[in-house]
Each structure stands twice: as structure tokens, then as C-alpha cells.
Amino acid sequence: MKIASWNVNSLKVRLEHVCEWLTAQQPDLLGLQELKLTDDKFPVTELDALGYGAVFAGQKTYNGVAILYRKASMPAPLDVQVNLPSFPDEQKRVIGATFGDLRFVSAYVVNGSEVGSEKYDYKMRWLEALRTDLAAWSNTWTKLALVGDFNIAPADEDVWDPAGWGEAVLCSPPERQHFRALLDLGYCDAFRQLPQAPASFSWWDYRQLGFQKNRGLRIDHILLSKTLQAQLKACSIDRAPRKKPQPSDHAPIWAELA
DNA sequence: ATGGCAGGTACGACCTGA
């Protein structure tokens, strides 16, 4: 089974890229973030034509998350849950669903703007709630994958210029502690369970030829529970869509499970 | 220190992203 995550930075603009990637990669589950569209504009028909169903929670302009599932291989989603139960929020940042005995959660973690700002404080409280709810979910589901744009580079090796970034937002010690706390609930960072090339990133700034110079960050992650970790066969970031015209600034990350 | 690029809103610049 192949599971994946992709911050598409507007599903309206990126629909062709998503359709091409689904066709080429045939993931069984794909978590999307930053849809930037309301539910009435979600491309149900186009995805259905490729054999994919979807559950989604969108809003105007910002945020918005979805789970796409390959209908030929996956049962229908059950127990669809939008947002964090312990954190009432107007912003649509989380959607979870159960496929057979697998719980799959797609999350778009708060960016945080800059350390010490009001948005950074919101990010801290939001991550605290995510920890609380992930702990609760872990009591219900042993096979759980939490995927998404975490807006945290877990370590210096996940930053193209650690000295330059320092302890700025996405790299600050409190954010990294929050990421570590999620792992401490019994999860692994799938990407780091396997050998990877140095300077592997999932996001590159649109400006200053960021991608061409590989000036990026690894902020998109697949977290696996222990049971799923034991099934992990491969994990990779696919840079190909980032090379296309009018790309998302994020690349998809995928993991193969036995 | 700032802006640079991109998307959305809405048709002006401005907000947000990471």
C-alpha cells in the first residue's frame, strides 16, 4: 500500500498536477493540504474519473484539507472527523478517516509567521492540542498514519542553511520539541527510518531560484504508529512535480507499506 | 532590514505563506 501527502497550494490551480501524479503513482491514500477552496468547488468529478474518492474540509482563500482514496483498493472511509476535537477552530486544518483498520489523518499545521508573534502562539496551542488528540487516537487505532505539512523542520539536516535560519520559525526549539513530543507518543518520522540523500527537502521558496539551488526545508512528514512502522518498505519525496511549470512550492512525500 | 514569488480577493493593494 502506498500512502502520501502533498501541500498543493490551491487545488484549483494544481488540479492537473494532482491528476497527473495520481495517474503516475497510484497512491492508495493521499492527504492534501492548502486546498484554498470551498467544498462546493472541490473537484469531485475529475478525481472520480481517475478512480479516486475524497473526503474534504475546505474554506475560502486559506487552509483546507482532504483525503483522496483509490476506490479499487480501499474500502469506503468511515468515522470522518474534521479538525481537532480538543481545539475548536474556524480554520480547516485536519481531516481524518478510517479505511478498514487504518486510521489516516491529513493535517496542515499552523505556519506561525514569526517566533513570538500571535500566530506563533496559536501554533503552539494548536500543536499542544494535536498532541492531546493524537494520544487519544492512539488508544483507538494501532494502525495510524498522520501525514501533512507540519511546518516544522525537525533537525538542522532538514534545513538548507541551518546557520542562516537559526532558531527562526519552522526551526525554533519549541516547535522541534512539539514534533519530538508527537514521536514520543509512539510514532516515527517515516522518512528518517530509511537511508536518504543529504539535503533532502519537501519545500522550496518560489523566490531567488530556491528549487534550482536546492535551498529548501523538509517540513512535510509522514508519521507512522509502531504497527505501521513495522510495515514500512520505502519512503521518498518526489521532486518531479516541483520541476513542472506553475508548481506547488511543496513536493509530495510518499511511503510504501507492506 | 527588506524584498524577492505565488495564490486569493477583487479590480486596489493587501494578506498570507515558509
For the structure shown, list the relevant keywords.
DNA-binding, alpha+beta, Deoxyribonuclease I, Chain A, 258 residues, 14 strands, 6 helices
Brief overview:
The protein has 258 residues and is an alpha+beta fold. It contains six helices and 14 strands. Strands 3-4-2-1-14-13 form a six-stranded mixed beta sheet. Strands 5-6-7-8-12-9 form a six-stranded mixed beta sheet.
Give an overview of the whole structure.
α3 (about 120-140) packs parallel to α5 (about 175-185). This protein has 6 helices and 14 strands. With about 260 residues, it is an alpha+beta fold. Helices cover about 25% and strands about 30% of the residues. The protein has one domain (about 1-255): Deoxyribonuclease I, Chain A. The radius of gyration is 17 Å and the shape is globular. The structure holds one DNA strand of 18 nucleotides.
Secondary structure: elements and pairs:
Layout lengths: L1 E6 L3 H15 L3 E5 L10 H6 L2 E6 L7 E6 L7 E5 L11 E6 L2 E7 L9 H23 L2 E7 L12 H4 L7 H12 L2 E3 L13 E2 L11 E2 L2 E6 H4 L2 E6 L15 E5 L1
Parallel strand pairs: 1-2, 7-8
Antiparallel strand pairs: 1-14, 2-4, 3-4, 5-6, 6-7, 8-12, 9-12, 10-11, 13-14
Helix pairs in contact: 3-5
The structure holds one DNA strand of 18 nucleotides.
